[in-house]
Write a structure and sequence with these properties.
It is a single chain. Helix content is about 75%, strand content about 0%. It has 4 helices and no strands.
Length: about 90
């Protein structure tokens, strides 16, 4: 199944389709966070939170856009919130 179909299926509540998207993008999201954080465990936690947030908001995602940048924007927003909280 291609990525666009995985997104559409995820928007219709298919948890297995969303799980496939997580498998595709988890390394990228974790790497984006890990290079910006000193603690890899916290980076892993934020990566997990990124996918939880994405799952909750998947119906809001415009499937004509790219999924990776949308995920990274969620990750960077969570990272910004993390920095504000831990100043």
């Amino acid at each position: 199944m291609d990525e666009k179909q995985l997104i559409i299926n995820s928007q219709q509540g298919d948890i297995e389709a969303f799980s496939e998207l997580v498998k595709i993008y988890q390394g990228n999201v974790r790497a984006c966070l890990a290079v910006r954080m000193s603690n890899t465990f916290e980076a892993d936690d934020l990566a997990q939170e990124t996918f939880i947030t994405a799952f909750r908001r998947i119906r809001d995602f415009d499937s004509s856009r790219l999924f990776g940048p949308w995920l990274r924007s969620i990750a960077f927003n969570l990272l910004r919130n993390f920095w504000h909280k831990h100043k």
